[in-house]
Amino acid sequence: MLMEDGGEASSSSSEVRSVCSHVDVPRIPNPQLKKLLFFKVYKRRWFVLLVLCLLNCSNATLWLTFAPVADQSAQYLRVSLEEINWLSLVYMVVAIPLSFGTTWMLDTLGLRITLILGSWLNMFGALLRFCGTPLGKDDRPLYPVVMLGQTLGAIAQPLIIFTPTKLAALWFPDHQRATANMIASMSNPLGVLLANVISPMMVESPSHIPTLLIAYMVPACIICFLATVGIRSSAPPTPPSASAETSGSEPFLQGLKLLLKNKAYVVLLLCFGSGIAVFTCFSTLLEQILCVQGYTDDFAGVCGALFIVFGIVGAGALGPFVDKTKKFIEATKINMSFTALACIAFSVVSQLRQQKAAVAAVCSLFGFFGFSIYPVAMELSVECSYPVGEASSAGLIFISGQVQSVLYIIVLQGLTKRLADSPLSTCGNVVLSWRVPLMVMAGLCSFFTCCFVIIFHTRYRRLEAEEQASYGTKQSNGSPASEHAPTVES
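and the corresponding structure tokens:
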């Protein structure tokens, strides 16, 4: 039974659904254990989740501040489009070497220290970007200072984006974990959505860039205050589930070794990492792809917004469904298949002129099926790698996505060709053909999706462990589950 903070029961006792038919457990729970297995949940978990969502959203807006208005940003900062792309790409480059340290920090030092440090880095990054704008009309914008601010935001990103799976495991009961992970994870694409809408809306000319930076700086400061003052502990006084008691039980280095020896996890690592890379390329390069065929920055912003909105809708439907049915594998495989089809469709319709409805529809479907996978895949990574810490299992997948994102963007940009004549283009001075890069991106997405659908199979190890605890079977270390069962705080 779960007890809400304050002593009020939030749900009645229920038998845990069997997830693997080969697990030999008694059908009737041990009566003595059933009396002991009461778990308490705390209302403050929603505040911690809120702060994480706001922080994740703010960091995403800093990441893609310049991408939707790449042409105006290049003119204002007096740099090339490639240098503007690096303002987004730095997030991937910086995160790769720092991610292992972040994973260790989250599993070892805890949630509170990680989130507060991330909020301060995020705030200083936003402040520093504004410091790169000229004070007077005769001063030049300082691109290196803006890049340094983006770098601080990039350092903060893994501290924030690794956290949803850990928070869901430590603060939420088993029937709310996927939903909590979905809410926290989808706050990042919500930030991408806001960047795709707010940036084109506020920047009608290059001179409006400083105002845009202020608009993103103020929320970062407020969120830093909320995180520093409001988050008082890394975990609740008592665990909300049986698996929360052993969260991160494996030592960090030993956990990494176990992950790399786990065939199912390695398949998920490579295939879902490729999916993250495809979505990063789409978000970063959307405006540059569409402007070639005469689509405006505003329309590109609308397409980016539809991509995110429908993604959040899809995730909002899939999270509770998976929480109820525990069909992580089926949901991930089906959605990845539809995502590959949507990616192929985008590579075709984005090269057509005067097809706004088709482009908008494909972007919506791409987001609906693609974004909804993310929180489910993160939970699946924990299920197939338990008892390795949640930050380690989710963190390695993020690192894989970042590495592949850098490679994909570099390769796709290298495959572009300069067009000598494009009368409908709204791209500015430099017009590039994206036909071949888009075909390559669709091919990579389809290849890794097929590999995942055919090869990936796993047991739900965390659910099995919780089932064993509930039914009184022996744990893998040979000690009875009753020795680890927490009692309800009076």
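(Above: one complete record from the training split.) Residues 5 and 42 are 4 Å apart (CA to CA).
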